[in-house]
Design brief:
single chain, mainly alpha, globular
Length: about 80
């Protein structure tokens, strides 16, 4: 039961980020958008691996890694702009 709630929360995070972006309320470069995608996709990746769902694990894992890379780029850009 708890696992279902956690996986639903992960899905809700990804969908909230996607919906917010589609409605023009969450820019794709925003910390909130990228964080929701990273955490939601990571949660879903864990559940997909545990359920032995290879396709879903690859998709969600890639989604999480892409979000992480974007977050690191954002952090680097913010760091560079502060030192200028």
């Amino acid at each position: 039961m708890l696992g279902q709630l956690v996986s639903l929360a992960g899905a809700a995070m990804v969908l909230f980020a996607y919906g917010g972006h589609q409605m023009g309320r969450l820019p794709r470069e925003s910390l909130l958008y990228l964080s929701l995608n990273l955490v939601g996709a990571a949660v879903l990746t864990i559940f997909a691996v545990r359920a032995r769902q290879a396709g879903l694990a690859v998709m969600e894992g890639a989604w999480a890694l892409i979000s992480l890379a974007a977050l690191l780029r954002l952090r680097s850009a913010r760091s560079s702009s502060r030192s200028s």
